[in-house]
């Protein structure tokens, strides 16, 4: 490359390149995969094909299809998992909720895995970070609700009764404190006395164009909650539509829901990084 000197002459200097490795690798839709390499001003590698000879899909990379199972990538896919979630009601009563989670992908999202990339200037890496955080956060949400923490059916170990626990502490007064306290109670090693158990279904629809969106549907009291959110660059959550806050014509919520806003729901999910816990947190705070 040519470097401009003080006397306006140019001197050819070697081009210095660096390599950044991602651990774990990041799964990106093909358009965003190309955009990542554009930030680094390098040509993307050849598109990798699956063993079926077609580009892999986003869900296929996150949740691989068992070998030998015939699946048409152009057809919708539903991924069903089970998970036991320990939650706490607003009056601090421990409950174990049996979640039946289903992820729906109605259109194929052709994607690629990025494990490393080259760049020549730190600014390029800074430009990549919002996009990387966006899809890393999306992957974390899906992994926690449909990945290694879940199973196809409940194992004997999952059916064991939780052990004894800790005493409740002071009353919580703010939404921020409620989220923090809710997460503290979920820390490993804390095994409260849980005597109740209930079953719940959570359906999630995923699409990524033009931005990653999740539509989350779950029971809440006698009604059905329906929340649509999008994951912005940087991993920020924006709730774009819901039917649970009960806002009036002036945009204000009624009753105990007055302390909750779309912004507070989004921040809670950013903090929890877990759709199952987030849904239970909403149900225990906003159910009639």
UniProtKB/TrEMBL annotation:
Signal sequence interval, chain numbering: none
Keywords annotated in UniProt: Activator, Nucleus, Transcription, Transcription regulation
UniProt-annotated location(s): Nucleus
A GO biological-process term: positive regulation of transcription by RNA polymerase II
Molecular function GO labels: transcription coregulator activity
GO cellular component terms listed in the entry, alphabetical order: mediator complex
Domain Mediator complex subunit Med1: 1-147
Record flagged with keyword tRNA-binding: no
InterPro entries, sorted: Mediator_Med1
Family: Belongs to the Mediator complex subunit 1 family.
Function of the protein: Component of the Mediator complex, a coactivator involved in the regulated transcription of nearly all RNA polymerase II-dependent genes. Mediator functions as a bridge to convey information from gene-specific regulatory proteins to the basal RNA polymerase II transcription machinery. Mediator is recruited to promoters by direct interactions with regulatory proteins and serves as a scaffold for the assembly of a functional preinitiation complex with RNA polymerase II and the general transcription factors.
PANTHER family named in the record: MEDIATOR OF RNA POLYMERASE II TRANSCRIPTION SUBUNIT 1
Record's protein name: Mediator of RNA polymerase II transcription subunit 1
Gene source species: Ophiocordyceps sinensis
């Amino acid at each position: 490359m040519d470097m401009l000197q003080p006397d306006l002459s140019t001197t050819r200097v070697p081009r210095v390149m660096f390599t950044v490795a991602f651990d774990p690798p990041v799964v990106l839709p093909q358009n965003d995969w190309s955009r990542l390499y554009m930030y680094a001003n390098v040509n993307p590698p050849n598109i990798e094909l699956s063993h079926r000879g077609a580009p892999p899909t986003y869900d296929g990379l996150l949740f691989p299809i068992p070998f030998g199972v015939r699946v048409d990538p152009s057809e919708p896919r539903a991924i069903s998992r089970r998970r036991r979630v320990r939650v706490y009601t607003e009056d601090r009563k421990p409950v174990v909720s049996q979640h039946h989670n289903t992820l729906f992908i109605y259109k194929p999202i052709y994607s690629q895995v990025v494990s490393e990339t080259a760049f020549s200037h730190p600014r390029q890496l800074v430009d990549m970070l919002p996009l990387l955080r966006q899809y890393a956060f999306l992957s974390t949400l899906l992994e926690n609700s449909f990945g290694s923490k879940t199973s196809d059916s409940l194992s004997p170990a999952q059916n064991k009764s939780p052990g004894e626990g800790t005493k409740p502490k002071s009353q919580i007064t703010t939404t921020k404190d409620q989220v923090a306290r809710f997460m503290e109670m979920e820390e490993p090693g804390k095994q409260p006395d849980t005597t109740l158990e209930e079953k719940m279904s959570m359906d999630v629809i995923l699409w990524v164009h033009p931005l990653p969106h999740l539509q989350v549907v779950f029971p809440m009291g006698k009604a059905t909650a329906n929340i649509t959110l999008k994951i912005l660059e940087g991993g920020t959550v924006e709730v774009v539509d819901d039917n649970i806050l009960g806002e009036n014509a002036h945009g204000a919520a009624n009753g105990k829901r007055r302390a909750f806003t779309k912004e507070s729901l989004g921040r809670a999910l950013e903090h929890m990084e877990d759709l199952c816990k987030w849904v239970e947190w909403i149900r225990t705070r906003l159910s009639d």
